[in-house]
Amino acid sequence: MHELSIANDLVELVEAELVRAGAARATRVTVRLGAWCGVVPQLLRSAFAPAVAGTRLQGAALVLEVVPAVIWCENCDAEQALHPAVYIMRCPRCGQRAGPLIRGRELEVACVEVLDAAANFGSSPEGVEEQ
Amino acid sequence: MQPRILEVRQKVLKNNDTLARQMRDGFRAAGVFVVSLVSSPGAGKTTLLRETLRLLNQSHRVAALVGDLATENDARRLAESGAPVRQIITGTVCHLEAAMVESALKEWNLGPLDYLFIENVGNLVCPASYDLGEDLRIVLLSTPEGEDKPLKYPTIFNTADVAIITKSDLSDAVDFDRAAALCNIQDVRPSMRVLEVSTKTGAGMPQWLELLEDARRTRAPRPEEAAAHVV
How far is B126 from chain A (nearest CA, A)? Predict the structure, then answer.
């Protein structure tokens, strides 16, 4: 997957939110990644620093929340989460073939922690904080 | 001054999704049925599409867009069918996005068309994430690629509507395990419709055209549209 391109889209999205909220810069970006969204978390993390360089996200921490893939099993009459490395659409409990994915394709910015213009004094973090 | 939290809850690819939805509305208003094809490079998209265009062109008005990193070779091949074709050169981009399709369709009056086909860049990974506004997404798997391809690339199969096993005439020569392939497809995309075709022998082509015509007549919403309200 082209994670740098995804990271650039992410930066654009957050910059637009900063403008909308009248904030100066972002200090933490929380992204929800579904297990089936096609983006590799580690690669997105690697692409984040180059993507934010020179932007109002520079120095922001990246928090990745991985959302497990969840199917509905008619047999068990319940939601079942698929194992992270498994892409077979079968209920992990009873083995029955499952219906469509209920959750697990997310690729979204959940929330952003921001600082307003007046808070420019004080230390600013260098580089990306690992979470 | 304390930092504050902005609740965002927006898809990273929302620009593509929003545009794709607008394009879908536009296609429906124009009455054109849009079909996209994805596969690995060399699975037979262009050949299948050329034959499809040639056959449909006899009784319908059809057109096609094809995406490649470089060359206009595929557009030339598709144009042999007699249908109007435009090439999208992506440069280094490994997949088509809605904006590229919109741009390629500028000043093209889609109203008279029955079908618009979009052949994606040969890639089993990235196209899965990009809605192009199509009504139907077809994933191709050729017999030489092997029966476990769906298990290796589950997302592209899971986000497509129909799977076509191409080059069925080579099945024996490459020891393709048809039963395993069908089972694997169902494992990653339960209830997926699967066709088997050979453009060389013509096998399966009537069923493929019938599937297209049925889909165009009924135009059921794509799973992504339904899922958009859930995820």
Answer: 6
